Backbone:
């Protein structure tokens, strides 16, 4: 009788402690403060028609725990694009001017890290609805290979507090 009770108590403790441990590990990962960048799935766009001379590649990225200093933010996205080149994604398109537009967003209540576009009948939620969380962008093309960087310090509501624009490493006033 006592052996059965001990087994039940151990089993009950295990049922309670294992989920709490898993939840604790998940919370620690989220609040670790480490900066991470990843592409937001299902948001890549290639825009251009066969008879047009230009084709645009748009990619959207999430930055977890972005730096608050705008120069550090610019250097972070610059390093990321150098380490993750996107030009190969459009190598198949010959004879067209390729335009690359990379957008970087902060995580928020409206744009959580697992966000996905929604095109359902009663609800539409696309990347363009989240401009208030856009904190950095890079644009360049085959015709204008110099990269233009825009970095933003925004309020929680998405109002621009400070904005810096760079052409490569030169700050543009």
Residues:
């Amino acid at each position: 009788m006592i052996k059965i009770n001990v087994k039940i108590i151990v089993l009950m403790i295990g049922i309670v402690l294992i989920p709490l441990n898993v939840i604790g590990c998940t919370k620690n990962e989220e609040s670790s403060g480490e900066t991470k960048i990843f592409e937001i799935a299902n948001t890549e766009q290639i825009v251009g028609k066969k008879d047009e001379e230009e084709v645009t590649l748009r990619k959207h990225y999430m930055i977890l725990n972005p730096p608050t200093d705008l120069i550090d933010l610019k250097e972070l996205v610059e390093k990321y694009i150098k380490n993750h080149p996107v030009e190969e994604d459009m190598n198949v398109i010959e004879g067209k001017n390729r335009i690359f537009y990379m957008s970087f967003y902060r995580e928020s209540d409206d744009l959580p890290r697992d966000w996905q576009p929604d095109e359902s009948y009663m609800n539409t939620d696309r990347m363009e609805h989240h401009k208030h969380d856009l904190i950095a962008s890079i644009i360049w093309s085959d015709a204008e290979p110099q990269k233009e960087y825009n970095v933003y310090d925004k309020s929680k509501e998405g109002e621009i507090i400070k904005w810096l624009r760079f052409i490569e490493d030169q700050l543009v006033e």
Remarks:
- The mean pLDDT is 84.
- Helices lie at 2-30, 70-83.
